[in-house]
Design brief:
This protein has 15 helices and eleven strands. A hairpin with a 4-residue loop joins strand 3 and strand 4. It starts with a helix and ends with a helix.
Length: about 400
């Protein structure tokens, strides 16, 4: 079966040559033995076999017209790379995650996907937007997670009469001293829960922009750095739209992940009933420190992503912008705007964290597939025609991954 590299030339064929990498994992696909996740999926098939698009195109993927010429593989990276040393470092640095998940599971029953996604945001510094009906432990999860790492936690209830100064801080006049003093807002915390963020007007939502992107807040003429780590976890209710202000696209794009939370299974709900029916609710214990989380972040940034997996990420995002170039012409009338360049960066960062949680030192295509929906569902904007046909952005993203071959 043809793979992506067999079908198309590499995006960067002029990589440095004459160097060798001391890896035992090629493309992150045949690395050390891994019991924490499945191996890469098989290729989905060649686009040229499914659609009658031209053989040679400009932009996007370009069909390799040299039939007899072997596929060109990029040279190894210039720096030496020891997969065994990195694997040992990842397993040592990620050991505390098992304790964190165990403590969270004492309080939050089920919702493993939501817990993992929030942890991915914490390990990468990417903010999360959590969407779900009331009563699904969104607030409880964030508070419990802060307890396990001894981090500061603040909850902000967004309402239509909220002001920007209510969340960032303001300047207060002290009548006794005759001086103005600065009062910091609730944004100065490691974990900030913006509850029902779509209930506040646009001027309040925009007050989060500087904090989320620059990790700083300006009060008056003074700029204050926010604590590290700093993570915004915003929630919104999808079933009540009266009196709400939809988040603008510019702010939606700043959230690394859009996490959709569903109802618990009957088994989880029964376990929740048994656990919470007592007089005392379970409480999570501190099992790690913020310094250990910072150290884990540095290791996450060093997790290996092969050139073929990097190309796969770029092709997935490009296919959401120019679907005809990838043999997905039926999606062109359904896509108003494709995913932004932030999607490319977030896919790589989230995939690294996804592998790190599984104590793996390299990224596989399965990591990309596992996290892609949370990264791209709010970055792909569909047309009115798609809405009329009840086609969502999730359907578009799912179709792209079903069609593109896997390296």
């Amino acid at each position: 079966m043809d793979t992506l590299r067999d079908l198309y030339p590499p995006l960067n064929p002029t990589s440095p040559s004459g160097t060798t990498a001391t890896t035992t994992a090629s493309a992150g696909l045949a690395g050390p033995a891994d019991d924490h996740g499945p191996g890469p999926a098989s290729a989905a098939g060649a686009p040229a076999e499914r659609a009658g698009h031209p053989v040679e195109r400009t932009g996007g993927l370009v069909r390799n017209t040299a039939v007899d010429a072997p596929a060109t593989l990029p040279a190894a990276p210039a720096e030496a790379f020891d997969i065994h040393r990195l694997t040992e470092e990842v397993r040592r640095s990620s050991a505390f995650l098992d304790d964190v998940f165990a403590q969270v599971a004492r309080v939050v029953v089920g919702q493993r996907d939501m817990v993992e996604r929030v942890m991915i945001g914490l390990l990468t510094g990417g903010h999360c937007l959590i969407e779900g009906v009331p009563g699904l432990a969104k607030t409880l999860l964030v508070k419990t997670l802060s307890q396990t790492i001894n981090a500061t936690f603040q909850r902000i209830q967004f309402t239509p009469d909220l002001l920007p100064a209510d969340i960032t801080g303001t300047i207060i006049y002290n009548m006794h001293t005759g001086q103005f003093t600065q009062k910091r807002g609730p944004l100065f915390a490691n974990l900030v829960l913006a509850d029902e963020v779509n209930r506040a007007p646009a001027k309040v939502q925009s007050a989060l922009l500087e904090a989320m992107q620059e990790r700083q807040v300006t009060i008056g003429d003074t700029t204050h750095r926010l604590p590290d780590p700093f993570l915004v976890l915003a929630t919104q209710n999808p079933i009540e739209q009266e009196g709400t202000f939809p988040l603008p696209e510019a702010q939606l794009d700043r959230f690394m992940l859009l996490i959709k939370v569903g109802y618990p299974t009957p088994t989880d709900e029964r376990a929740m009933l048994d656990r919470m029916a007592g007089l005392e609710s379970p409480v999570a214990e501190e099992v790690t420190t913020i310094e250990q989380v910072r150290a884990a972040r540095r290791v996450v940034g060093s997790i290996y992503i092969d050139d073929r997996v990097r190309d796969y990420i770029v092709h997935v995002v490009q296919a959401s912008r120019r679907p005809r170039d990838y043999g997905l012409g039926e999606l062109a009338p359904l896509i108003e705007y494709g995913a932004s360049p932030r999607a490319t960066l977030c896919l790589a960062q989230a995939a690294r964290a996804h592998a790190f949680i599984r104590h793996r030192a390299y990224v596989t295509p399965d990591d990309i597939k596992a996290i892609a929906m949370d990264v791209m569902r709010h970055r792909v904007v569909v047309t009115y025609e798609a809405e009329a046909e009840e086609v969502s952005s999730e359907d578009v993203v799912r179709r792209i991954f079903e069609y593109l071959p896997v390296p």
